[in-house]
Design goal:
Elements lengths: L7 E5 L4 H12 L3 E6 L2 H13 L3 E6 L5 H15 L4 E4 L14 H29 L2 E6 L12 H21 L4 E8 L19 H9 L11 H12 L10 E4 L8
Parallel strand pairs: 1-2, 1-4, 2-3, 4-5, 5-6, 6-7
Helix pairs in contact: 1-2, 1-7, 3-4, 4-5
The protein binds nicotinamide-adenine-dinucleotide.
Length: 258
């Protein structure tokens, strides 16, 4: 028996990193997973991998900021599977820039993917879930909703916005038995931990010295997609029954240290 047997889950940003990890975990636990990503090849590969392991998956190459396209996908999912139990708003981007050097169009790009698409995905999912009188909405925010470095203003603002939206949706959707929660990962080894020059930040000498050796991350390692997938599984499962509007920090203790 899987912990998500019979459930249907949409996961955005499922071609790589955390989204792919969540999709694999959900499929292993018996959910039919619907994978959305603008990286068509990556999302196709993710589906093939899940099916090879015996799971049920569908995939769509789509830009999740396109509301009408995502709505059509949502409708196709409900037509095929008859329900939608879990919506994971996970796709994200970062554009590094200081306020002074930034361009308005880059700010808007980040807000569109990291915040506006979370609103869209949640709304489209909630319309189905409210009729069902059940559901889970899970969004990948970030510890950068509370902490910061320089050059990530739009990203920080978007992730803080996701937390605000999560709380309000939790209150509004509680009468329909829809639980809404967010995960705030720390430094996770994925496509996003690659810096603009292509190096993986978690592999640099500076990262190893400061975060691992000097234990800014008390657990002594960067996170992996499966570390986040375990939390996303809990939030989608029956073990999570009385928790809504919460932000789960999954960062190896990073946000505890000075
Ligand atoms: N990696 C980290 O350290 C870290 C830390 C905190 C939060 N996060 C968050 O985790 C989430 C997943 O990121 P990741 O680390 O796995 O990075 P990733 O780059 O490996 O994955 C992000 C995925 O989102 C997809 N995507 C981006 N824009 C899209 C769009 N408009 N439409 C459809 N798909 C789109 C990308 O193609 C990619 O497959 C993001 O929301 C990110 O902000 C990551």
């Amino acid at each position: 028996m899987g912990r998500l047997d019979g459930r249907v889950a949409i996961i955005t940003g499922a071609a790589s990193g955390i989204g792919r990890g969540i999709a694999q975990e959900y499929a292993q636990e018996g959910a039919a997973v619907i994978l959305l990503d603008r990286n068509k090849k990556g999302v196709q590969q993710a589906r093939t991998e899940i099916e090879a392991a015996g799971g049920t998956a569908r995939h769509f190459g789509v830009d999740i900021t396109r509301y009408a396209q995502v709505r059509r996908i949502r409708d196709a999912v409900v037509k095929e599977f008859g329900r939608l139990d879990v919506m994971v708003n996970n796709a994200g981007i970062v554009i590094y820039d200081t306020l002074l050097d930034s361009r308005l169009e880059d700010w808007r790009k980040v807000i569109a993917v990291d915040l506006e698409a979370v609103y869209m995905g949640s709304k489209l999912a909630a319309e189905v879930m409210a009729r069902q009188n059940s559901g889970r909405i899970i969004s990948t925010a970030s510890i950068q909703a509370f902490m910061t470095t320089s050059r990530v203003g739009a990203y920080n603002a978007a992730k803080a916005g996701v937390l605000g939206l999560t709380k309000c949706m939790a209150v509004e959707l509680a009468p329909y038995h829809i639980l809404v929660n967010a995960i705030c990962p720390g430094a996770i080894k994925t496509g996003m931990s690659r810096m603009p020059d292509g190096t993986d930040e978690t592999e640099t000498k500076e990262f190893k010295e400061l975060y691992l050796k000097r234990r800014r991350i008390p657990l002594g390692r960067a996170g992996l997609p499966r570390d986040i997938a375990g939390t996303a599984l809990f939030l989608a499962s029956d073990d999570c029954r009385y928790m809504t509007g919460q932000m789960l920090i999954v960062d190896g203790g990073y946000s505890l240290t000075l």
